[in-house]
Amino acid sequence: MASTDKSGQGVARIAALLRAIGSSSAATSTTALAAAAGLARPTAHRLLTALAAEGLVDRDNRTGDWSLGPELYLLGATAAAAYDIRDDAQSVLDRLAGESGESVFLSARRGDETVCVAGQEGSFPVRSHVLYEGIRFPLGVASAGLAILSHLPDRDIDDYLQRSDLGATWGPEHAHDMIRRRIARTRLDGYATNPALLVEASWGMGAAVFDSDGRPAWALSLTGVEARFQPERRTELGRLLLAQAHELTRKLQVRRKSSTRLS
Q1: Torsions phi, psi of 191, nearest 5?
Q2: What is the pLDDT at residue 133?
Q3: What is the pLDDT of residues 137-159, one digit of tens each?
Q4: What is the C-alpha separation between 24 and 84, in angstroms, rounded?
Q5: Segments making up each domain of the chain, as ranges
Q6: Which residues 6+ apart lie within 8 Å of 185 measured at CB?
Q7: Which CATH class is domain 84-262?
Q8: pLDDT tens, 60-90?
Q9: In the chain, what is the greatest distance between 2 CA atoms, to the nearest angstrom?
Q10: 126, 225 in Cβ contact below 8 A?
Q11: What is the mean pLDDT of the chain?
Q12: Domain IclR-ED, which positions (predicted)?
């Protein structure tokens, strides 16, 4: 049993390092990756060296910084056929950005987190810079994660909140009772609203996108400055978000049926 626990811990550490590298827009130092993954620097260096030997990460010989390696690209290309929905989503992102003028993003659920996988800038010149491709947030943090969390079964929500302490990391507005209030509101509206809880004066709204089994697997979100998210306009943006989230859900279900027939 102890051996199994250690193996699981090792996998979790490697996964944390790979996520830390993938969430950065540039090559990153061992020290920074160790801090991001919650590891001691010697442990991080040992694991990174082993990953480099397998081609899963690369190290810059001049700076010593780390980036994702070629083997991950090959693995990702294989996985993309099953998990990459950006081609299906592009017309939806374009339409949302065009009709709202705001920045639009697509996020995917990955376990207890969401990761932003695509974005499209709107025409309004002042933008919020909270979201960008590759950034991760825990479920319940940011509008995409709140939208997904709100559409999970109550038991799954309870289990998630029991094993997480978002208030300690993200502030009192993310304490469990506050998140539950926002879940209730999201279920009532159909879409989630983030009223500048991450960055002052930067608002976001999100709507869940469902897979063929009816699970909230992705989310569309709009972000912008507070002046653009007044109550009357939020209602309008919410309707737009829900319509496009439904459209993307429908497209994914059609793709799933087509691939099932072909197989």
Answers
A1: -130, 160
A2: 84
A3: 999 999 999 999 999 999 999 99
A4: 20
A5: 2-74, 84-262
A6: 193
A7: alpha beta
A8: 999 999 999 888 877 776 665 556 687 889 9
A9: 58
A10: yes
A11: 88
A12: 71-254
Beta bridge partners of 118: 106
Fold match between domain 2-74 and domain 84-262? no
Could you report the per-residue pLDDT of 169-191, keeping only the tens digit for each? 999 999 999 999 999 999 999 99
| Residue appearing with tokens 């996020």 | 107
CATH of 2-74, one of 3.30.1510.10, 1.10.10.10, 1.25.40.10, 1.10.3720.10: 1.10.10.10
Contacts of 89 (CB under 8 A, 6+ apart): 106, 118, 218, 220, 248
Q: State how beta strands 202-210 and 216-225 pair.
A: antiparallel
The span from the first CA to the last CA of the chain, in angstroms, equals 40
pLDDT digits (tens, 9 = 90+) for 195-216: 989 888 889 999 999 998 899 9
CA 59 – CA 17 distance, rounded (Å): 14
The string of pLDDT tens digits covering residues 10-29 is 898 998 899 889 877 788 99
